[in-house]
Amino acid sequence: MDERDNLKSANIALEMANRELESKMALTEQEINSVKEEIAKAQSERDKAVEDYNNISGRYNDLQNAQEELIKGNVKETQKLLTELQAAQVNLKSKEDLLSQLEQTLDTRKAALDELTFELEKRNARLVELEKILDAQKRIAQDLKNKVSEALLGFENNGLTVSQRNGKVYISLDEQLLFKSASWDIDANGRNALKKLAAVLERNPDIQITIEGHTDDVPYNSGGSLLRDNWDLSVKRATTVVRVLLEGSKIDPKRLTAAGHSEFMPVDAENSSDARQKNRRTEVVLTPDLTELYNLINKY
Question: I need a surface site. Which of 163, 169, 202, 224 has the fewest CB within 10 A?
């Protein structure tokens, strides 16, 4: 479950990163549009300045042609035209500088947008790969659940349930199917169920197997035995199931893990005899091989 939660967290983090990149891209596109508008405005102003400059230049040429006839009284007008011409040249140079600066800004924005787009494509590709692997894991888990249910058909709803969640298959065996009260010896009916389960596990060598023992909240009475409390009892029951699965089977012991949770993971928190009976159980948790998924996560 921790592994599944980590995968979900990684998936959520990737989705949040994607949304952040998309938001940055939208903001960058808005800024680019604003820059384009400023460039268009600057170009319009530059064109007007060029037109003004041409008009003034024409007037200046006319002035030069009439200079000999306007020796007197036209010096002031000539100076005014020259001043206007110089001002127009300065204004035109300023507009050209602004246009050049805006074009550089636009290039920078485009480069940033391209980089964000590339990063978003990489993240999307990673998400697609993760989703494919997770879907494959779900299919493997569903197929395994079907095989286990088929093998244990006669035991389901008779102290045994098979369910699938978080990409894993959970086989829950009630205490009455396996053990007598406060005991860790498995009776013949429970041993038969575990043997059928072992046959399925032999045919699926890539599945990791965890045996979890659970008790109710009634303190364990050791009665002079080696077990001290519910912790010891839950672990002892788990290791007993492990040994039965391994007896006469070809299951690699490296695939098996025995764990005890005592009374601290109840399925029913009510303070009643029915709730305590539900909580006294042994669960076999089957986990598909996640190597490919881990490799993908480490790759990025």
Answer: 224
Give helix 2-65 / helix 291-299 axis angle, nearest 10°. 30
Phi, psi (5° rounding) for residue 60?
-65, -40
99-114 residues labelled b (16+ CB within 10 A) or e (exposed) = beebeebbeebeeebe
From residue 183, give the alpha-carbon distance in Å to each of 191, 229, 255. 14, 12, 26
Q: Please give the average per-residue pLDDT across 77-89, as a whole number.
A: 83
167 Ramachandran zone, left/alpha/beta (phi>0; psi -120 to 50): left
Count how many residues are written for the chain: 300
Query: Mean pLDDT across the stretch 142-165?
Result: 80
Cα separation, 85 vs 105, whole angstroms: 30
> Which phi and psi (to 5°) does residue 53 adopt?
-60, -40
Answer for the pair 208, 257: CB distance below 8 angstroms, yes or no.
yes
Q: Give the pTM.
A: 0.57
